[in-house]
Amino acid sequence: MDGGEALRIVIAAFASFAVVVWTIPFVRRIALANEITDHPGDDRWHRTPTPYLGGAALVAGAISAAAVLPTWEAEAAPLILGAVVLAVVGLVDDVRTIAPLRRVVFESGVAATVFFAGARVEIFNTVIDFVLTVGWFVVVTNAFNLLDNMDGGMASIAAVVAAAIATVALSGGQVMIGGLAIVTGTACLGFLLYNWHPAQILMGDAGSLFLGFMLAALALKLRPDVPRPVSVIGLVLLLSPALFDTSLVVVSRLRAGRSIFIGGTDHTSHRLMRLGLGQRATAAVLAVAAAALSGCGVLVSVQIVNPVVGAMAIAIPCATVGIALLRMPVYTIPAHRPRVDLR
Fold first, then answer.
1. 3-state secondary structure of 95
2. Which of 62, 10, 1 is nearest to 184 (CA)?
């Protein structure tokens, strides 16, 4: 990457941040005027109705800034288009509600499209790769969607994961992929100015589906100069912050005989808040943990850390923390406000 390319990426990053910051007040007024709000409930921590549509501003920032990036590649267009399509699906879900199964069908269709556009798992060179690709997109997209359950949490984690993907991409000379990851991350930072507790606006499904799909696609497009098994380990580690929470929730609900498709206060964030942390402290802890997990993925992908060592360094702590969190009685006592609000 030369100086000119670096400058354009920096300009694009600032543009992404600025567009989000300038757009959110506008979409917030629209959401309030049309009563597109999330109301307090047993599975919500906020005490007053909070407007949705923050995801629309986030998408606008990331997409508009992408046009400024250097070395535009045609293969990036399907990734962006696919993410935008799911953002629209999410927007409809925010306003009208879409059945979970129908939403998965939309996600699978978009995933199949980008598979043929080049964003794919390439392990067996058979139809198995197609199945794995669609599964990857559906799982990661919904993993990020599930993370959007508290002020500042999901955007913080997404920004960290985007930074990790950008680091791997730029270290390997993938300027376009790295640039897209950067503008996605800076869009999240702009959104955090309004979403940090107490949130003035929520991301909604429009933003979470867009981010989940975009990060899943960018991660698949990485081409680190490592053997294929190592790249797979690095790929999983990069997205592990979202995958950990989803795994925790699925295992927890199956053990309790509960549906995995119905929301609840059993996510990592909710469990940390039951320990007494406030929303700001919880979001900060999640961001630091995400940096450790995705950072290990970077070290493996750029061959600084042995892949087996890296995988074990993450697997053992995650298993230990996961078991401890699973032991918390989240289904036998009512959800409550945090005892301490560490600001």
1. helix
2. 62
Q: Are 133 and 121 in contact (CB under 8 A)?
A: yes
**Inside any domain, residue 331:** no
What is the structure's pLDDT at 40? 67
Distance, in Å, from the CA atom of 43 to the CA atom of 130, rounded to the nearest integer, reads 36
Amino acid letter, 73: E
Q: How crowded is residue 320: how many other Cβ atoms within 10 Å of its Cβ?
A: 10
Stated as kind and residue range, the H or E segment containing 180 is: helix 175-195
**Burial class of residue 118 in the structure, from the number of CB atoms within 10 Å of its CB (0-12 exposed, 13-18 middle, 19+ buried):** middle
Distance between CA atoms of 305 and 298, rounded to whole angstroms? 9
Predicted pLDDT of residue 335: 41
* Token reading at 133: 């690709």
335 located within any domain = no
pLDDT at 192 over 60: yes
Residue 337 lies in a domain: no
Range of the domain at 76: 3-326
DSSP annotation of 162? H
